[in-house]
Amino acid sequence: MPSSNLPPELLLLIFGYLKDTEDIRELLSCARVNKNWHYTVTHFFIWNTARFKKIKTFFAFLDILRRIAWTRKQRAFANWAKLIAGLLEKKKIKLKKVDITSTPIQPITTTHWHSTHPYGFSVETLDLSLLEHKNGVTDRMLIDLFNQTPNLVKVDLYNCYTLTDKAIDALTMQCRHLKELRLFGCTGITERSVIFLQQKCPKLTKVDIGMCHHIHLYTLDKEWASLRHLDISFRYDFKERQIMDIVKRVPNLEYLNLFRCSLTDGLLNSLLPLLPRLRFLNIGQSTYSLSDEVAKAIAMHVPNLRQLSIQNLEITSKGILVIAQKCQNLTAIDMSRCAKITDVGIKYLVRYAKNINDINLLGCTQLTDIAFVSLGELGEKLDRVVAHFCELTDVGLISLVSKCLNLKCLNLEYCKYLTSASLGRLPEFCKSLEVLDISGSCIDDEAARKILSGLPSLNMLVMKNCEHLSDLFKDEFVGDKRLQICNNVPGMDQYRL
C-alpha cells in the first residue's frame, strides 16, 4: 500500500512516536512527503499545541501567522481580480488598458511552513506559562494572535502581568470554543474581563484568577452554570461575604482552590453545604487558623472528595479520623506542615481511605516509622510520597518501599536518620521510580551508583547538600542529565503527578 493511502489512525500511531522527540525536524520531514502526511502532522502534532519558553520563538510564531494571513489575503484579492477580468471579457466590456492582475503577490519567506493553509485554525492550546521575559508580551500581540486562532480551547497566560482587559475582550470575541483559561498573576486584568467571559464563552468550565487583585467578581449577577473549576488562591483580600456570594453563583463547582484565603471555621461550615458536587478542595495556609471543626464540615457536606489539601492547618489526628471515615474515596491528600498530626492519624487514614495514591507529609515532624509502616499497607496503589523533614529511619523506609512497589515519586529530603544501607536498596523494590529527592541525606558514592544504575525509569535524582558524596563521584556523573546536585534546582512540587 502506498504511504499516501495509509489510514489516519495508522499515521497518528506512527507519528506519535516522534512527537516526544526534542528535534521537531523529524516531524517536519514527514510533513513534506505528501499531502496526507502534511495534513496529519501539522494538524495533530505541530500546530495543535503552541507552548513557548523563549520569547524569540513566540515572536517568530506570531510572524508566521501574520505572513500566512497576509499571503492568503493577497491571493484572495488576486482571485477576485481574475474573476472580474474574466466576467468583463465574457460580456465584452472594454475598460481602459489597466492590467488588474499585474499586482505582484509576494509569497511568505521560505520557511518550513510553506503552505498558506490557515494553520492558526488548528491551534487548540496556547501555553505561555513558561515564557521568559513576559513583560514583552503586549495586548496588541495577543489580539493579533487570537484573530488567527479562533479554535482555541485551552489558554494559559500565567503571570502575564502586562496584559489588560483588551486582550481578554479579543479572546472572548474570537475564541467561542474556550473551555479553560488561566489568568493567575495577571494583575492588569479587571472586573470587565469576567463580564466578557461569562457572556461570550458559554463552554468555559475552568477559570484561574489567583492573585488577580483587581477582580472581585461583584458582577456575577446570575449563575455561572457552566463553571466547574474555580481558582481564587492568594486572594486574602476577599471577605467572608464575598466568598459566599461567589460560591452561590457557581453551584456546579467540582474544583475549588482557596489557598491562602481568609477562611474561618464558620465560613466553611456555611460554604461547603452549597457545593455537593465538590471533588477537589484546597484550603491550605489560611490567614486564620482552622481547627478540627473544618474536618467535621468536610466530612459532613462533601463526602465525595477525591483530593484534599489542608496544609499548615491546626487539624489533629481526630480531624483526620473524621475525614477518613466519611471521605473514603480520597485519592490524594496534602497534610504538609500539619504539625499536630501523629502516627495515629496516618493509621486512621490508611484504615478507612484505602484508595490513597498521593500523600504529602512535608514537615509533619511528629511522624515516626510507625506512620510509614502503616502507609505500606496501601500497597501498590501508592505512587507518590513526600516525607520531607519527617523522623523516618531505615526501618520505616524499607517497610514502605518493600510493599509499595509502584512508587513513581519519592521525596526523602532532609530525612536525617536515613543512611546508605536503606537508600542503596531502593533499586530492589522501586523499579518504577521516576523522581527521587534524597537531599541532605548521608548517602555515599556506592549507594548513589546503585540508584543510578538500578532504576531504569529514573528521570531525576536530586542530591543537594549530601556531604558524604565525593568530588570523584560528582566528576564521574557530571554529564548525567538525571542528576541534580547543585542547590538551585526546582522544588518537588514541580513534579507532582
Topology:
Layout: H1 8-15, H2 25-31, H3 35-46, E1 49-51, H4 55-90, E2 125-127, H5 139-148, E3 154-156, H6 165-174, E4 180-182, H7 191-200, E5 206-208, E6 229-231, H8 240-248, E7 255-257, H9 265-271, E8 280-282, H10 292-301, E9 307-309, H11 317-326, E10 332-334, H12 343-352, E11 358-360, H13 369-375, E12 384-386, H14 394-401, E13 409-411, H15 420-423, H16 426-429, E14 435-437, H17 445-454, E15 460-462, H18 471-476, E16 483-484
Parallel strand pairs: 1-2, 2-3, 3-4, 4-5, 5-6, 6-7, 7-8, 8-9, 9-10, 10-11, 11-12, 12-13, 13-14, 14-15, 15-16
Describe the structure.
The chain has a domain of 44 residues. 36% of the residues lie in helices and 9% in strands. By secondary structure, it is of the alpha/beta class. The C terminus is likely disordered. Helix 4 crosses helix 5 and helix 13 runs parallel beside helix 14. Helix 5 links the parallel strand 2 and strand 3. It starts with 7 loop residues before the first helix and ends in a 13-residue tail after the last strand. It has a 16-stranded parallel sheet, with no helix packed on it.
